[in-house]
């Protein structure tokens, strides 16, 4: 199982890194969406500058996954982007290429998030009390990282 998770993490990291840097250094073919709604969304993201932010997050998350650093953070940062990309691919475009592309993003991300679930569970506290962290608490959290 460990090998499968390592291969999945590396695959997703390379997938995100290549898709992210493709904006600035085009080397992968980019197919314009056939759906007018998807095309309008894409134009809006580019015109607003948000598409650049998406690509920066993809590159950063890809590097974190490749180097096995802050993996739960990388997956959490990618989650909103993955939801939007999946919606565009599975609902708006619905072509064989978009289905494959969406699955290549959603499946590894879902698998990794499932296996890193223990890092997300503390966020599901129903009534959390805010408190500034103490130096000791920070030191314990840092020491607890593998």
UniProtKB/TrEMBL annotation:
Keywords attached to this entry: Membrane, Transmembrane, Transmembrane helix
GO CC aspect terms: membrane
Topological category with respect to the lipid bilayer: Multi-pass membrane protein
Protein localization: Membrane
One Pfam assignment: DoxX
Main location: membrane
Regions crossing the membrane: 7-25, 45-66, 73-93, 99-117
Name of the protein in question: DoxX family protein
Species whose genome carries this gene: Sphingobium chungbukense
